Every structure is written in structure tokens, then in C-alpha cells.
Amino acid sequence: MSTNISVMDSDAMLELILQSIQKLIDYELAVILRYDGQQTLSVTKAAGPLADATLTGHTISLKNRKDLAAILEGRKPYLFSESEDHIDTYADIINLPLHHSCLVSPLILGDEIVGLLTFDHRKCNRFNPQIIGFIEMISTLVAALLVQFDVSNELIERTAQLLNERNNLLASESDAFRNLIGSSPQWIRVLDSIRLVAAAEAPVLIMGETGTGKEEVARAIHRLSSRAERPFVPVNCSALSTSLAESELFGHEKGSFTGALALRKGRFELADKGTLFLDEVGDLPMELQPKLLRVLSDGIFERVGGEKPVKVDVRIIAATNVDLAKAMQDGHFREDLYYRLSVFPIALPSLRERTSDIELLALHFLHSIKERTKNSGLHFTEQAFHAILVYSWPGNVRELKNVLERAAILAGSGEIREEHLGLRLHSLTRHDAAGFSAKSAAVTEKQAVYAGSADVDDGALPLQSIIKKRIEEALEASGGRIYGKDGAAAALNLKPSTLQSKLKKLGIRREWFLSPRGEH
Asked: Which of 6, 19, 170, 395 is the least buried, fewest Cβ under 10 Å from its Cβ?
């Protein structure tokens, strides 16, 4: 019979060993016991005609079995004489005659006592002294196997633990990133930054245009941090009135001002042990900035109208859509507060800087709308989807989401058409949302058709007409030339092959624009 040892579990392996020994030693009961290092032996495996299921797990205290303790100390097999009075090891479970054959062998590996191996037979004279050497050798092998099983089990358990931790981490990360859609290099860098800073306690400053997802990034950092089970408290600093901003952030004592009828905790206390998200931190009143700086430094503040210091443990994540460096120069933002908040800055790209993510985002929002509204038939027409891909999205991800929400309502249960989107021209050459990046004005391949002359009033022309108009203007300016640095493709920042495809789709023939110096 062929046995694949490599895939056998420890129980089957021990069973096979005891069965093999029985071919050489005529036993009726063979038992392997493990030593716990605390004066206790416990049955790990039993075999033979007298083996009983109740033996498994049976324990023997060496404090009550001085004879077995002495055998373990001696580290040599011991053959009991049939006439020798000794306590029957398994008397409570198996009824053996007063006089019977009994052989006991310590399981030793190096200096370690691993356990004990016992053999019993109801008849006398079944074991002879000549087998002692063989049993001693077998015992060493069994001891080595048991230790190896321990190592393997520990490795398996540790591997399972690590896999479980990894799965939990992946599940946690998947949950944290559920609203951060994108696969562009610019967005991957943002996700990497989130992973990196989440485990730290340092303040984070998230910078980006309106609608780029600053709060979602802050929530992701919180979800991946050790504070995930604690509160995440958002505060929109631009919505705080100067008169009530201090009370809103730091709370107030009863009677501290007219209308303060009871003690009220501020956002800092509500976020204790958690995360406080200060959105639009650049709009925080100057008179509150020193108090915020103190909390960042010491975690201590006083409520409005109070004198008793309040200590909190809060992680600060701030966000802004303004240039704080310029705000510092203009005297609207404290320099020391800026450096305290921006220990780990994260700059979010605009949607114009990660146009390859527009498709993923649009499909993600469409899927969410379909699931929420139970409208499985909702879909984009080809023209609508193309319009989505080439629009400049000055309001970024938030604008895209809102446009699709509105379009879904207008479309009802059918298809989302271009007119449902209500998109109008946004020339990238004129758009500079917040000056966060010089790349904001760069024309990408899918947006380039918007980059024609800025003095043309396109009004409410359909998007397809605007695209056609821009291409025709570029061909007119280049004399019908497509290739080269002075060609229409370069002017539109398109690949020549892409431009030729668009010409065919829009029914434009470059021959209409050829000049004597044009391409032939």
C-alpha cells in the first residue's frame, strides 16, 4: 500500500507508526503521551485492540506517579516485571489484569522531555528485554516527530493568523477606499500616502480644489488608523461665524454668554480619542488660530467662559482649497500653525489632472445610482459617455457625481443622453480653479478639443458641435496639416491617429482646409 506521508496529518502519522511497531511488538495497547512541562502527561494517541476513545485527552499527574516520573528522569525504557506491584496507568479506563506485560519508554529529544510511550498486553511475558534497544530508537523518532508537529502547527497557526490579519487589513482597506475611485498614477500616489500616514499620529493637511474628495480622504485615513473605532468629527471652518466659532470648537460653560443655558462640549471634546477633521481650515478666524495651535501642541484648552483646562487626545486632519502659503504672506494665516498642521501634506489632483479616472468614476456613480434606485436599465448613450469623458469638470468629482444624479432623474428608467447631462464648454486654457498646480491648465488628450481660441463665444452649443468647431479651427490654422509641430494634432494636443479618427467620426475632411503648403 502506497502512503503519501507528506500530506498526512499528525494523527494519521502517529497511527501509522504505532501500527508498524505492532508488527514487531505484540501489544494490545500502545499509547503516546505528551508532557506539558508542568508535571502532567496527557494522552495524544492510542492504538491496539484495547484502545478506547475515552483515552484521548486522559491526563496523569506525575506528582501521583513517582514511578513514571523516575522513568522520565532516567531517560531510558523500563520493562516492568509481571510480579512487580505498580499502579496501572489506565486503571480508570481499561480493566487490565493485576499481572500483565508493561513497557514504558521516555520520549526525549536532546535535553527536552517530550512525553512517554507505553505498551501493554493482558498476558505476561509478551515483551522481552531484547526489544529495549529498538524501543529506545523508536522513541527518539516519535519524540522528533512530535516536536516537528508542534513546529508545523505553530507555523500553520501563525500563517493562518497572518492571513487572517491580512484579510482583515485588505477588508479594512477596501472599506476605507470604497469611495476613492481611480487607477491613474496621480491617484495611486494619493492612496499610497493614505496608507503610509494612517498608522501615524501626525497631523495631515489635505490640499486640493473644491470637489476633489478631501473629506473622503480624511475619512479613509481615519478608517485605516488605530482610532477607527473612535469618533470622526468633521467641522466646516468656513461655515463657522466669528462670534460662535470658539464655542463650536471648544465648547462653553453654563452662563458663559447669553443663551448658554447649560455646559456644552465642543467638537474637540466630541472627537476625544478619535479624529477631528477641520475642512476649509484656511477660513478659520485669526483670533482662534493661537488656541488651535495650543491644542495641537499640548492637547489642552479651556471652554468659553471656563478656567479649568480640558485635556483631549485628538488627531487633527485639516483640509484647504486655498493657497495657505499666500494666506500667510497676506497675514491671514499663522505661519507656526501652518507648519504644525502640514506635518504630512497630501495634494489631491483635480479631475483634469487624472482624466483616465473619469471613466471609472462615471461607471462607479452609475452603478451606485442603479443599485440605490433599483433601476437596472439605466445606461449611458455613446454620445453621453463621450461627453462625460471630454468635459473639463471644473467642479471635479463632486460635480461629476451631481451631474450624473441629475441626469439619472431626467432619464427616468432608460438611457442617459447627452442633453440630460446639461454640460457646457469649459475652456481649460482659461480655467485656473485654485492655482494648486501648473498642470491644471494642461490640455489632456480627451480634453484638448476644448482648447481652441478663447475669444469665441460658444454659448450653449451642443458639445459635439463645439468639438467639431475646435477641430475645424485647428485645421484652418494649420492649412489642413495634421502632422508636425505646426499641425492640427499638435495644436489640439492629440495624437495624429486620434485626430484622424475624430475627423472620420465627425465627417470632417482635411482636404477642405489644405493650403498650397499643406500636406500631400
From this structure: 6
Cell numbers standing for residue 442 = 494642461
User: Higher model confidence: residue 468 or residue 446?
Assistant: 468
pLDDT in tens, 300-319: 888 888 888 899 999 999 99
pLDDT digits (tens, 9 = 90+) for 5-25: 443 577 888 888 888 888 888
Q: How far apart are CA 407 and CA 289, in angstroms?
A: 42
Grid cell at residue 162: 497572518
CA distance 492 to 434: 24
**What's the CA gap between 190 and 360, in Å, rounded?**
16
Per-residue cell: 309: 483646562
Residues of the chain by 3-state class (helix, strand, coil), percent to 5: 45, 15, 40
* Residue 180 zone, left/alpha/beta (φ > 0; ψ -120 to 50; rest): beta
Q: How far is the C-alpha of 446 from the C-alpha of 423, rounded, in Å?
A: 15
Q: Is 110 left (phi over 0), alpha (psi -120 to 50) or beta?
A: left
Digit-coded pLDDT (tens) for 165-191: 666 555 556 677 888 998 899 999 999
Q: Is the backbone of residue 134 left (phi > 0), alpha (psi -120 to 50) or beta?
A: alpha
Return the H-helix or E-strand segment holding 107. strand 101-109
Q: Which structural domains are found in the chain, ordered by start? A: 10-152 (3.30.450.40), 185-254+263-347 (3.40.50.300), 352-429 (1.10.8.60), 462-512 (no CATH)
Neighbours of 119 (CB within 10 A): 26
